[in-house]
Amino acid sequence: MKKEFILFLLLSIVVNIPIFKRGLHGVLIKTLYYPPQKIATFLQDISKVEVERDSLAQQLAELKEKFYVETVKQETLVRKLPYIKGNITAYNPLGIPRYITLKVKNPLRGANFLALDIYGNLAGKLFKSEDEVIEIMTIFNKEFRIGVKNVRTGTLGILYGSERPGVRFIPLDISFRKGDTLVTAGIGEFRVAGIPVGIVDTVLKDENNPLFKKCEVLPFFQPYRNLHLLLRKGK
Predict the structure, then answer these.
(1) 156 & 191 share domain
(2) Between these two residues, 45 and 148, which has the higher pLDDT value?
(3) Does residue 176 sit within a domain?
(4) Alpha-carbon distances, residue 88 vs 55, 134, 136, 176, 196 (angstroms)
(5) By residue range, what is the domain housing residue 168?
(6) Judgement on whether residues 227 and 128 belong to the same structural domain of the protein
């Protein structure tokens, strides 16, 4: 008991020494106060970064479209139209989705809308709309069609949707090669030119049409990299 009393007495004296008290106070502050404060600051920074990311992604989509329109020198007039953001709620089916369900703030007016990812790449087109819930037909759907243009050669073609989209009916004397960039041509149903679609992966002979060749396309759009899609009018 005497030893314990002496140790307690010494500890009480040491703790009350000003230098030691300041040091102990500093240790407690760093171990009990700073970590929660840093975590709260870190979470606030993450929230700010997400808001800035969405804003920059939309700006990038607009700049990317403008760049490709100027590159392909499309004569069709492209009007400056606002984007509508739709939050992704479902993929159908999972894996390579043929349809994507979106939730929007307000019902859409009109049926002619293209869907872009947050990077400005073509994702699909409006399939049906009911109040604030809409369904997008993706470029992986076999029913999907859109006019495209080869940036390098200026050649027009029709992109046919599938799990591996492709361009068909390319004349044999037209140059299509691996690595060529394809953008929307602004012809047919959708008059918006310059939206990035994908790159040519493989050029093949069309066995069903010996006067033509075809190519497989690697789409820029990657479904599961997006929490929402951007919608814009196709005319």
Answers:
(1) yes
(2) 148
(3) yes
(4) 17, 10, 10, 35, 21
(5) 145-219
(6) yes
Question: How confident is the model at residue 115, as a pLDDT?
Answer: 94
Residue 104: closest CA among 96, 113, 95 = 113
Q: Which residues, at least 6 apart from 29, have a Cβ–Cβ distance to it below 8 Å?
A: none
Q: Alpha helix locations (H) across the chain?
A: 2-15, 18-28, 34-72
Q: What's the whole-model pTM score?
A: 0.66
Verify that 102 and 163 share a domain, yes or no: no
Report the CATH number that the domain containing residue 122 is assigned in CATH. Answer: 2.40.10.340
- Quote the number of domains for the chain: 2
Q: Is the pLDDT of residue 73 over 50?
A: no
For the record, the structure tokens of 88 come out as 């992704």
Q: Does 76 have pLDDT greater than 60?
A: no
Residue 193 falls in which region: left (phi positive, over 0), alpha (psi -120 to 50) or beta = beta
Cβ(223)–Cβ(163) below 8 Å: no
Q: Give 22's DSSP letter.
A: H
The count of other CB atoms within 10 Å of the CB of residue 167 is 25
Nearest Cα residue to 233 out of 73, 61, 60, 116? 116
Cβ neighbours around 7 below 10 Å, total: 10
3-state SS assignment for residue 105: coil
| Cis upstream peptide for 93 (omega within 30°) | yes
